[in-house]
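So, can you check?
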Amino acid sequence: MKIVDYVPEYIRSLVPYVPGKPIEEVEREYGIAASVKLASNENPLGPSPEAVKALQGRLHQLHLYPDGDCFYLRQGLAARLGVSPEELIFGNGSNELIEIAVRTFMRPGDEAVMAHQAFIVYRLVVQAAGGACRIIPLKNFTHDLVAMFRVITPATRLVFLANPNNPTGTIYRRKEWETFVGRISPEVLVIVDEAYFEYVVDPEFPDSLAYHGEGRAILTLRTFSKLYGLAGLRIGYGVGPRVIVDLMNRVRQPFNVNAAAQWAALAALEDHEHVRRSLEVNREGMRYLTKEIASLGLEQVPSQANFILVRVGNGQDLYERLLRRGIIVRPMGGYDFPEYLRVTVGTMEENDRFIKELRDIISFS
């Protein structure tokens, strides 16, 4: 026997998450001078200028360990959200917080409920912990909260909800959420992933923070990666009951959030102009892209996020054809949407180039 022979089947059968290629590698491989990346739902304006300034002013401190408690960021964010500092937990992206929650509240054989064609990391982390995934189909590209509630059993420990959902960009609305949360047992932790909540314009969007309390077990996850443009620094946060956060902090490793991420996130919180411009660019780009995609006769899923799911036929083929023209989007075969591409809203110049290349490909097909 070798050490690898002891690895359980639920680890062996995991399919690793496959990220996109670095933009520099795409340009080198295809001989492209300047490509447009619309694949990863990043902020096309880049990072918050105030965050960059904060980083530049403290680079001489990189020899010091980061604040293991994120003290200043915790105080600033608590004040912004109107919550207690003890209700906050920070992670190396919200991905780490998903993993910490699973490690804290699940044991091998426990169950977690999630939607099919939601963020794939939920399934990967639960399986890696030896848990069982109860996967519920989307309904009209949206979480079916009624069906998800029906499959909860005494073995259920977690329910994952993404609002807006990645990769569809859809949301469940206040009425169905209130029905769901009003019936859920406090024995089940509801993890609400709101990575894209700042982009939502639908007035019926239920901000999950408003439903904390009353003995409910809700953990809201958010991130600095999208709107604030800090994806490269990997910093996300969770808001939950003190007892939930306290238990997760016992599992969380020390110094899990690096110093640069803490400095940048705290500064980005006060960069209101960057937030305003980012939302404006997204709204303008979304209007343009939805109109132009419709004019090409392509189906698209109405989105409340900063990306659009577009039905194009053979998604992998069109992805590769766009790639050769310097346009990087995301094929959705890994999410069981083989006929779709996910396209991030970029700057107007990037959006226009994508539409021109897409139109050119379609016209010659």
Summary: The CA atoms of residues 140 and 170 lie 9 Å apart.
